[in-house]
Design goal:
The chain has a domain at about 270-350: Roll (CBS-domain), CATH 3.10.580. By secondary structure, it is α/β, with parallel strands linked by helices. The longest helix is centred in the middle third of the chain and has 18 residues, at about 195-210. The protein contains 19 helices and 13 strands. Helix 7 (about 135-150) crosses helix 8. The chain is globular and about 75 Å long. The N and C termini lie close together (about 10 Å). Helix 16 links the parallel strand 11 (about 310) and strand 12. The structure holds adenosine-5'-diphosphate (ADP) and magnesium ion. Magnesium ion binds near residues 65, 66 and 187.
Amino acid sequence: MSRLQAENLYKVFGRRPGEAVRKLQGGADREELRADGTTAAVIDASFSVEPGQIFVVMGLSGSGKSTLLRMLNGLLEPTSGRVLFDGQDVTALSPKDLRDVRAKKISMVFQHFALFPHRSVLENAAYGLEVQGVPRAEREERAHEALEMAGLKGWEKSWPDELSGGMQQRVGLARALATDADVLLMDESFSALDPLIRRDMQDQLLELQKTLKKTIVFITHDLNEAMRLGDSIAVMRDGRIVQLGTAEDILVTPANEYVASFTQDVDRSRVLTAGAVMAEPHTAIGGLDDAGRELRTPEDVLDAAPAKVGADTPIIELFTPCSTSGVPVAVTDAKGSLIGVVPRARLLAVLGEPMEPAVPAPVPDAQAATANDADQANEGTENVKKVSAGA
Ligand SMILES: Nc1ncnc2c1ncn2[C@@H]1O[C@H](COP(=O)(O)OP(=O)(O)O)[C@@H](O)[C@H]1O
Ligand SMILES: [Mg+2]
């Protein structure tokens, strides 16, 4: 079961919000409503977040990210649509149950990881648990663990001002992650940090996440950050989710010009993988190895290739092998069979611009696809299913 699901969520601020939703469902756009003094902050958002996933919501300021996040933990009531937490309808909870969920299960991480100056590092790291009423011995033990994971073992008794700025931020992150809550909502948590500390915090989050396996909804306006952190990314524009997919999906097949324009500044070499850029194996057959012998079979290609890599390898790791040989890098499956090749020219080409996938995605059985589409349209949960399928 998905940990968190949004089903056709709308949030409209202003007069007669219900009527505004009906207009939006009838095809009105956000600007028409704005003329009446009504703001459609979130329009028809559907997605699901799987346990242990980092789900990133990316978009410019004003695109509706914070409003969406606040609906997920019931801080804001949706104008229309539902939020499900472990299958339970958050939108239908009593105020008391809702407070309980917010206190123990879905925790909002503050934007600033500021520490209390008169508490030790350990007390700071344990603060979130203290607020939740966890007994001292237990919270200190867990704070110890979190600090150790954050690379701060040995600093427990220090005062915050004895730590560098970056270390203080990491204590703050350890505090945020060392809570009982399984689901963390992080709203632009790293946006105010300077770039080096920010990068360190991203690494730290990924590192802590390996052990803690929280379910995280992370909001950012920075696509590079989104791509580093997100297992799945929703790109928002003017209240709508305009694309939902992995970093690679967004880079390789942007849904529209708008998304494509965002991806221009992204460091493709770290996001794209060998599997996304590879050409079909047969394109290497008939070429020559570095000694001038013809490559006749997949085995020849495997033998002559300067490196054999898995489909998940980021292409940044292919530059060195490609520079030492004229033979393409071989992409292999788990059994070591050749599934694709990455020639040097292709590597250079993909750094430049969005591209069509080199190996077209397999076309699903046409009839089955039609039947599924009809089901999805009837249930109105198309996006939800798409994400689940991809996760
Ligand atoms: N409480 C509110 N009342 C009226 N308008 C709001 C309120 N909260 C947000 N908005 C509007 O909703 C839109 C989306 O805002 P927000 O969710 O904060 O976007 P983001 O977090 O992506 O910057 C903006 O136009 C904003 O002005
Ligand atoms: Mg915001």
